[in-house]
Structure formats: C-alpha cells, structure tokens
Amino acid sequence: MGRIKAVVFDWAGTMVDFGSLAPVGAFVRAFAEFGVTVSAADARKPMGLRKWDHIAAMLAEPQIAARWQAAQGAAPMRRLCNGCMMSSCR
After folding, report:
1. 3-state SS, one letter per residue, for 25-69
2. Which is nearest to 61 in space by CA: 45, 85, 48, 50?
3. pTM for this one?
4. Total Cβ atoms within 10 A of residue 56
5. Which of 17, 45, 51, 53 is catalytic?
6. pLDDT tens digit string along 55-87?
7. Which of 12, 17, 30, 34 has the fewest CB atoms within 10 Å distance of its CB?
8. Whether 45 is catalytic
9. 56 Cβ contact partners less than 8 Å away, ≥ 6 residues apart
C-alpha cells in the first residue's frame, strides 16, 4: 500500500468559521446599506439557505419587514433580494 501524501477536507461552515460569522457580517452590512438594522441573530437565523433564499427569509420576518417598510417606504418584495445580495457581495 502506498503512503498517503495529503488529505483535503472541506470543513467550511462546520469546523472553520464556526457559527457562520463571516456571512453574518455581510448580511448585517447589506441590510444597513438599505437603512435597515438587523442583528447578528437575525442574520444567523436562516443560515444554511441559498443566499437569495436567506435574504427572502430575513425579509419575511415581521420585525425586519417592518424596519424595511419604515426605511424604504414600501414593503419588501422578493425582487429586492437581488439588491441585498449584490450589497452582501461587496
């Protein structure tokens, strides 16, 4: 049997960045760019969903939807996920 020279594990989100801390900050900042304050707990709640679904889930939360309405003058809509997604990618 040959010797193993290397082993690569993809532990992203499991062992590395435990608690999804990096994306949480991106979501908090993205919503802030639209004048909407969200907490780390708000941003972490739907963690594990695809990014557009994650943003849609956050916008579906009554307290976040109310903050969005107050800041933007209109209720959040699914198409707004693209704007938040682009902001979170900066």
Report:
1. HHHHHHHHHCCCCCCHHHHHCCECECHHHHHHHHHHCHHHHHHHH
2. 45
3. 0.69
4. 18
5. 51
6. 889 999 999 999 999 998 988 876 555 666 555
7. 12
8. no
9. 78, 81
